[in-house]
Amino acid sequence: MLIPLISTNATEATLKAASLPEPLTLDVALSLIEQQHPDLRYIEAGLKNAQSNLQQTLSNNDLNISVKADVRWIEPSVLSTNQKQEDHRLGLYVNKTLYDFGRSSAQVDVASQQIINKSLQYINAQQRQYINVMKRYFDVVLADLQFYRYNEEMAVAYIQFDRIQIRKKLGQYTETDVAEKDLEYKRIRRLRSHSQNQQRVTRSLLAQALNRPNSLPSTVEKPELDVISRKLPDIEELQKKVKENNPVLGALRAKLAAAKNNIRFAYASDNPTLTGGFEAFSYERETSASNKWQATITLDVPLWSGDRVDAAVAKAKAKVYKIKAELAQQELAAQQQVLELWLGIETLKIKYDEVVAGMDFTELSLDKSRALYELEVTSDLGYSMVRFSEAERKVVQTDFDIALAWAQLDALSGKLLNKLVEISIKNKEPLL
User: Fold this and answer.
1) DSSP annotation string for 217-278
2) Mean pLDDT of the 147-174 span
3) CA separation (Å) from 104 to 54, 55, 215, 301, 302?
4) Bridge partners (DSSP) listed for residue 89
5) Distance of CA 404 to the CA centre of its chain
6) Which of 12, 54, 254, 349 is the most buried (most CB within 10 A)?
7) Phi-psi label, residue 275: left if phi above 0, alpha if psi -120 to 50, beta otherwise
């Protein structure tokens, strides 16, 4: 079992103040994911709490040593041979639970499984954060491409509007024609303004995903992804791997194991307790009953506890039943999610062939328009450039959609991050 690293030397203020490198690349952005992000710190707090619970459980039966001082004055009995009024006493007490017949071992097993549960939840949170940064980065690139597309289209629309105004004065077009071109220009200008705003919005979301809200990247490079050539495994093999290695399912199995150990603890709650003790005293006023020291071994056997044990066992069993149902639900949901992603990738690959063909066609059309423009035969070069920009954006978006789908599949099988390749959720050792 891999334990997520939850310590860092960098302070939160330093991380938020750090500037993002320019230009920003996808690899760099993913490498900048750090554990001080609020989403990860929230899960980390649960992991730390589980670790402290185990530490506390392990220490419940530790040796207890204490010193007690009694300072008192008395009026001794007339029959006492020692008539001193100072009756001070200093005592040393040593106590330890020697055996509790399974109660503490059940508690330790519960706490250990809780750590496994929180560790896998933390791994799942890391993977979600990784995918979120990918998506936010892709959104920035797509927003830039969208802006470039509308920027080109607005320039073409303005030229068309300006040209028709001139020709209207020559009597070649009517007022209605001018109004139509004016409306078209203003529509494109609105879309360009919106796409420009989206550039800022997507950069802000990316900066927040990287926990650097005050450092918006100005230049973001388009990543070169190699996801089209990646082959899909058999769906049955993939579903089996997800069932075995999915962090969410692993966390629920650990939660189920903890709940089963809670049943053991409930049964053992009225078991006998064997304790040992040692006491040593120093007296200011000694009598015949003043012991210098004493050692004891005590067996405490409960004889009757009413229905408290049965109630605790019933409650623990009900929790096990609920977690089993939750685990079954999540297993079904994971299988369905794998199927949908698997089929979605197949569909996206077919779509990718389509949009690439569309881009090739628009590129040929652009070359044709450019040649005709140079021969002054036609003047639709601007619109051809816009169509090519839009076709290129569709190719990039499809490429990104495939990459995100693969990332989600890798996350489901617990191997999205290189350092988390093949998480073993069968380990039942406490993670310390």
Assistant:
1) -S-BPPP----SSPPPPPHHHHHHHHHHH-HHHHHHHHHHHHHHHHHHHHHHTTS-EEEEEE
2) 85
3) 11, 12, 51, 16, 17
4) 70, 283
5) 16
6) 254
7) beta
Q: Give the integer Cα–Cα distance in Å for 273 and 98.
A: 8
pTM reported for the whole predicted model? 0.81
**Span 135-147, average pLDDT:** 96
User: Measured between alpha carbons, how far is 116 from 3 in angstroms, rounded to an integer?
Assistant: 9
Amino acid at 187: R
Query: Do residues 404 and 131 lie in contact, with contact meaning Cβ atoms separated by under 8 Å?
Result: yes
Selection from 252, 251, 253, 250 nearest residue 242 by Cα: 250
Instruction: Dump pLDDT digits (tens) for 252-284.
Output: 999 999 999 999 999 998 899 999 999 999 888
96 in helix, strand or coil?
strand
Q: Mean pLDDT over residues 332-350, rounded?
A: 96
pLDDT of residue 170 exceeding 70, the answer is yes
pLDDT at 331: 96
CA dihedral 342, 346, 352, 357 (to 10 degrees): 180
Q: What is the largest CA-CA distance in the chain?
A: 137
pLDDT digits (tens, 9 = 90+) for 214-264: 889 999 999 988 888 899 999 999 999 999 999 999 999 999 999 999 999
DSSP class of 35:
T
Distance CA 407, CA 334 (A): 15
- Between CA 345 and CA 407 the distance in angstroms is 11
Dihedral, 357, 362, 367, 373 alpha carbons, nearest 10: 170
Count of positions (residues) in the chain: 432
Q: What is the DSSP letter of 420?
A: G
